[in-house]
Design brief:
17 strands; eight-stranded antiparallel beta sheet; alpha+beta
Length: 346
């Protein structure tokens, strides 16, 4: 039970000029509670089901798509094109707005209008059962306001309360390994033909991603220093290397396919600030980094993957596929040159 009433939350938000995510962290409340408190005051509770929401978002035209976890934020400008719905997974497949959505986590939706110095700021914000942000969509100057009004009318829920019932946040699952199944893991890993087979494999062997990486060893994985993360970002930018950067949470994964052009580190934040793509990464949250190679029909899929101290995945970075303009040899050389864990300890 929150110690704050909706009235308390509105007052505290009015007194704070920072981001709602940061205020929620300081108050120890879910971010969704802050957003819900404004219901009826520029905020409308809406149906967050992707199958209903995303087709109406497409009609908005160009917007900014934002997905985050506790350590990383990705922002992309574009239009929500080529939507594919599904009961367990949905997606948009576009060069700019490229998403993988898991509808069971899209539980609380809001259409938000908030006055700012530059006028009314409009956004769609979706949260999971615990009130953590799954995905946000921010309208731009050229977005279609007629489509925005239609979206609010069509998706508004009958219940428009300014309080919200939320579940406790599930703890991060720590690394889970099964030593007696490592040989099976190595054998079946080497037989993979598609990266999507990996999750099925580790579930069947009663492991999770981090537990499998810690167990399997060379030549499949290589532990890297935490310094490999800033080195990765700097080298991708310096070498003009095309990558696929995956950032997400349990309900949504957002993907950037392309290059990093402008780096602007600030304190603990590692920032990419490109015209249509921003990345904000807390470098001090990175506790464990792995270079991972999985076999596929099209050749090895090589990734760099970072985890926080609790074992939560922060990001995955792959080389851009050759048919999309990537250079597999360049990417392999870049990853091969990242500092290994043993090198950092020496």
């Amino acid at each position: 039970m929150s110690p704050y009433s909706p009235e308390d939350l509105r007052r505290l938000a009015a007194e704070d000029a920072g981001r709602p995510f940061d205020l929620a962290e300081r108050l120890g409340v879910p971010e969704a509670a802050l957003v819900a408190a404004e219901t009826g005051r520029g905020t409308t509770r809406i149906d967050a089901t992707p199958g209903r929401l995303i087709p109406m978002v497409q009609a908005l035209g160009e917007v900014m798509a934002l997905t985050r976890n506790r350590s990383c934020v990705i922002e992309k400008l574009g239009t929500y094109n080529d939507f594919h719905d599904g009961e367990h997974a949905a997606m948009t497949v576009d060069h700019e707005i490229d998403l993988r959505m898991f509808p069971r986590h899209w539980l609380h939706g809001f259409a938000v209008e908030k006055a700012g110095d530059a006028g009314i700021r409009r956004s769609i914000q979706v949260f999971d059962a615990a009130g953590d942000a799954i995905h946000k969509i921010h309208l731009r100057e050229g977005s279609d306001l007629g489509a925005w009004a239609a979206l609010k009318r069509a998706l508004a829920l009958p219940e428009q309360s300014d309080s919200i019932e939320l579940a406790a946040r599930a703890p991060v699952e720590p690394a889970k390994a099964a030593p007696e199944r490592v040989e099976a893991l190595r054998r079946e890993w080497s037989e993979m033909t598609d990266t999507h087979q990996f999750n099925i494999l580790i579930r069947r062997l009663k492991m999770n991603r981090l537990g499998a990486y810690r167990s399997i060893g060379a030549p499949f994985v290589r532990p890297l220093s935490v310094e490999a993360v800033p080195a990765l970002i700097e080298r991708v930018q310096a070498e003009g290397c095309g990558v696929m950067m995956f950032v997400g949470n349990q309900g949504c994964i957002e993907i950037h396919s392309g290059r990093f052009e402008t780096l602007r580190p600030m304190g603990p934040w590692l920032n990419v600030m490109d015209p249509r793509f921003n990345l904000h990464l807390r470098g001090d949250h990175v506790a464990e980094v792995w270079a991972v190679e999985k076999p596929t029909k099209r050749g090895p899929a090589l990734s760099v993957e970072a985890f926080d101290a609790e074992g939560a995945l922060i990001f995955q970075c792959f080389g851009l596929r050759p048919e999309k303009g990537g250079d597999a040899a360049q990417w392999a050389a870049l990853v091969g040159g990242l500092p290994a864990l043993a090198e950092a300890a020496a």
